[in-house]
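ok posting inputs for the NAP job
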Amino acid sequence: MKIDGKTKLFGIIGNPVEHSLSPAMHNAAFAHLGLNCAYLPLPTNDLAGALQGLKHLGIAGASVTIPYKEQLFDYLDEVDPIARKIGAVNTVLVKESESGRKLVGSNTDWLGSNRALEQAVTLRGSHALILGAGGAARAVGFGLLESGARVSLSSRTESSGRALAEVLDCDWHPLDGDPVPADILINATSVGMQPHDRQTPSPADQLPGFTAVMDIVYAPLQTRLLREAEEAGCRCITGLEMLLFQGAAQFETWTRVPAPVDVMRAALLGAVSG
Ligand code: NAP
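and the output
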């Protein structure tokens, strides 16, 4: 990578960000396409200061992660309507305008989820069951509605589950209740994540009816849920695919160049195993 006076800078704002896989993914894409761009971790305790920094340092764009995704609306000049509906922004574009630099916020998590799923199934007209009612479930849910799929929600805590189901205008079911038949199952809880990788959010005997199962947990890559779904004959999608496609959508927002998805996937796989 060559850094010079014209290098465009991007980064990830959050805290912590040192374990983020995004630098590997985006820098591999820049290098592959010969773009004079670089992507760095930008850890901060001061969201407002960091966003002002984007403008004043001439940084071209940023990813935003925990704990700031829901907190930056007040500091942005424009926000795309679906990010507003989701209530979270994970992508900032610094746009040059006549009146100076503007911060434009969007959300690519829903696109990442949709594109990951569409590798295995047609979403329009299908019925998806989402497990979980946190921030990721909300983005996945809005994405599915955008795609024309029907959604059901199942979660551990009734109050937050019913609240999200109301927002998504869908039915809610307790996580430990009767099986909910659907075409697609998506784990949007953190169940099964390292070091608790022996856990699964769905009993193996409830999996055979699903055409496709996606686990948005990506550490480990092959969760217990996905292992058992594969044994049950379901098409399986790892959480790395959602991470990849949300990153590809960010890359395209910033560069207006089609993302080299295979290069980005290889970089992510290298970073996960390295
Ligand atoms: P969050 O807002 O904290 O929500 C976590 C959800 O998991 C809540 O619904 C919570 O239920 C549920 N949960 C946690 N432990 C549980 C348990 N033992 N049994 C049942 N439900 C449990 O987190 P988030 O941001 O939505 O993230 C969720 C997961 O998705 C994380 O593992 C994150 O790394 C992953 N993620 C992946 C991607 C990707 O691109 N692949 C993107 C975003 C997030 P309660 O409300 O009952 O506590």
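notes: The chain has a mean pLDDT of 97. Residues 109, 112, 132-137, 155-157, 160, 175, 188-191, 193, 216-218, 239, 242-243, 246 surround NAP (CB under 6 Å).
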